[in-house]
UniProtKB/TrEMBL annotation:
GO molecular function, one term: dihydroorotase activity
Cofactor: Zn(2+)
Species whose genome carries this gene: Limnochorda pilosa
Pfam families: DHOase (PF12890)
Disordered: region residues: 452-483
GO biological process: 'de novo' UMP biosynthetic process; purine nucleobase catabolic process
Compositional bias segments (type: Basic and acidic residues): 468-483
Protein's gene: pyrC
Domain of life assignment: Bacteria
Protein's UniProt name: Dihydroorotase
Length: 483
């Protein structure tokens, strides 16, 4: 099948398509043609030559989003999520690539299990890059065969869900991950400080009479991991930063030139511990939501280029488990279907980030950390694409999620910005925030959606008078000195 997207603003992180900017420093407008799953041509003027044409004026075309942190619960807890339902949630949210965590049942700690997962991933609509476990059975006592797991396709190593228990094991893991040539994804938590905690220690927890997790639980662990990375030279990636001081530790490590990268989740960027009173278990995750000062520090770190990517920590659980008393309910919320909308609403439309910077954090930023074949647009390369309407207003309805998970602190939120369509390898996988089951039907839905927007025009001022700074939306990423 051959199709051409016309008139979209194109976010081309590596400038591979060589499109001239539309205005000084602005995202270029252009056409992009796809045939047999690959991008075959791009240009400001491009004859359609018989391709199926879609008018994408006023929309943004970007590489399919990449998420370094998802829990698909497969194998073992497929009632919570499986490779297909998780993949459907991913493409619905605009993602073409995800990195699955290894804390399944059993965990991905042996080559045959990894091979089985990779084989079964072919049935998922999203491209799955599995991470393998650092320790056998996630037990924290003996290392997995990291070199063999890397050779078999593990893109990284992580015991996420739990921290590495002691410094000796973390140090050993760093040595072997270096031999294996893959980074460690580290969940930074000191269980001697966090044990029994439900939410962040502080005023909100005291008011609710709940046991708190101190911010130092994360900070002590991050300080340890950075010290060990300095000693071993290992590449480490710090998952889901949640405190202001954690940000400072990352800043120092980067200033020192250590190979340390970090991610932050949309929920830590959007919410504070006050959300737990309102949302209960739907705002219970690990690390917990922090204070307003933490949230501000995380936002500023993103704006300064200090944090390398946004990752969802999509962590579905069953209704029965989440409906328990708050101190019994498991940690974790879903995030794949709300991430883009939350980022656009909270960070871009508020003027904190350029659209291009936000998209970097969801495409080329994460891809670079794990050397994933993602986050770029190349003629001849795979057509992993997302078409985004940065102005579409929609209400988060968890009952309509493609994920089997329903728990999100964004239920009922009205967001501005959404993935209109997602292609993976040129195949249309989602339209209007819903996965596509029948591709022909999907194309009809997409054409109807685009026809409904016809005449909306480009300059980003739509809907009139609503959100300020319409022009800044199209600004190409400003040069940033690396932090
Ligand atoms: Zn974690």
């Amino acid at each position: 099948m051959r199709f051409q997207l016309e008139g979209a603003r194109i976010y081309d992180p590596t400038s591979s398509l060589r499109l001239p900017p539309a205005g000084p420093g602005e995202l270029p407008r252009g056409n992009l043609q796809v045939e047999d799953g690959r991008i075959v041509a791009a240009g400001a003027e491009l004859p359609a030559g018989g391709a199926r044409v879609l008018d994408a004026t006023g929309l943004v075309l970007a590489p399919g989003l990449a998420d370094l942190h998802v829990h698909f619960r497969d194998p073992g807890e497929e009632a919570k999520e499986d490779l297909v339902s998780g993949g459907r949630a991913a493409v619905a949210g605009g993602f073409a690539h995800v990195v699955t965590m290894a804390n399944t049942r059993p965990p991905i700690d042996e080559v045959p299990r990894l091979r089985d997962l990779i084989t079964r991933s072919g049935a998922s609509p999203v491209r799955i890059h599995p991470a393998a476990a650092v320790t056998r059975g996630l037990g924290g006592e003996s290392l997995t065969e990291m070199v063999r797991l890397a050779e078999a396709g593990a893109c990284a190593f992580t015991d996420d869900g739990r921290p590495l228990p002691d410094a000796r094991m973390a140090r050993l893991a760093m040595r072997y991950s270096t031999l294996a040539g893959r980074p460690l994804l580290l969940h930074a938590e000191d269980p001697s400080l966090s044990a029994g905690g439900v939410m962040r220690l502080g005023l909100a927890a005291t008011r609710m009479g709940l046991k708190g997790i101190p911010a130092t639980s994360e900070e002590v662990a991050i300080a340890r991991e950075i010290a060990l990375a300095r000693e071993t030279g290992a590449r480490i990636h710090l998952q889901h930063l949640s405190t202001a001081r954690a940000v400072e530790l990352v800043r120092q490590a980067k200033e020192e030139g250590l190979p340390v990268t970090a991610e932050v989740t949309p929920h830590h960027l959007a919410l504070t511990d006050e959300a737990v009173a309102r949302w209960g278990a739907s705002a219970k995750m690990n690390p917990p939501l922090g204070t307003a000062a933490d949230r501000e520090a995380l936002r500023q770190a993103l704006a300064q280029g200090l944090i390398d990517c946004i990752a969802t920590d999509h962590a579905p659980h069953s209704r029965e488990e989440k409906d328990q008393e708050l101190d019994l309910a498991p940690f974790g919320v879903v995030g794949l279907e709300t991430a883009l909308g939350v980022v656009l609403t909270e960070l871009v439309h508020t003027g904190l980030l350029d659209l291009a910077r936000a998209l970097h954090l969801l495409t080329a930023g994460p891809a670079a950390i794990l050397d994933l074949p993602a986050g770029r647009l190349d003629v001849g390369g795979p057509a992993d694409l997302v078409l985004i309407d940065p102005w579409e207003r929609w209400t988060v309805e968890p009952e309509r999620f493609a994920s089997k998970g329903r728990h999100t602190p964004f239920a009922g939120a009205v967001l501005t910005g959404r993935a209109v369509a997602t292609w993976v390898g040129g195949r249309l996988q989602a339209v209007g925030g819903r996965p596509v089951d029948d591709e022909a039907e999907g194309w009809r839905a997409l054409e109807a959606h685009l026809a409904g927007r016809a005449g909306a025009g480009d300059p980003g001022a739509r809907p009139a008078g609503e959100t300020p700074e319409p022009r800044s939306l199209w600004r190409a990423e400003r040069a940033r000195t690396p932090a």
